[in-house]
Amino acid sequence: HHRTFSRRSLGAIAVAVLPEIVEYCQPLSDFGVDAVVETIAEVSAWYEGRCPHTGQWHRLPRTTLAEAIARQVLQHIEAVGNLPLDGKMYGVLLAKMPTGEVAVLKAFSGLWWGRDTHPGWVPPIPGRDQVALQELQTLSALEQIKTEILHLQQLPSRDRYLQQQAELQAQRASLAAQHRQTKRDRQCQREHLAATLAGTALADALADLDRQSQQEGIARRRLKQTQDAALAPLKAEIDRADARLRLLKQRRKHLSRQLQDQMHRVYQLTNFAGESVALQQLSANGLPTGTGDCAAPKLLHFAARHGLVPLAIAEIWGGPPSRLGDRQPGQFYGPCADRCQPILGFLLSGLPTPAPIASPLAFSIRYEDEALIAVEKPPGLLTVPGRTRDRQDSILSRLQAQYPNGDRLRAVHRLDQATSGIVLVARTLDSYRILSQQFAARQVHKRYEAIVVRGERDRLPTTGTIDLPLWGDPTQRPRQQVHWHRGKPSLTQYRLLSTTGTRHRVEFRPITGRTHQLRLHAAHPQGLNAPILGDALYGPPFPAASGWSDRLHLHAGELRFLHPLTQTPIHFTSPVPF
Question: Does 535 participate in catalysis according to the annotation?
Answer without folding.
Answer: no
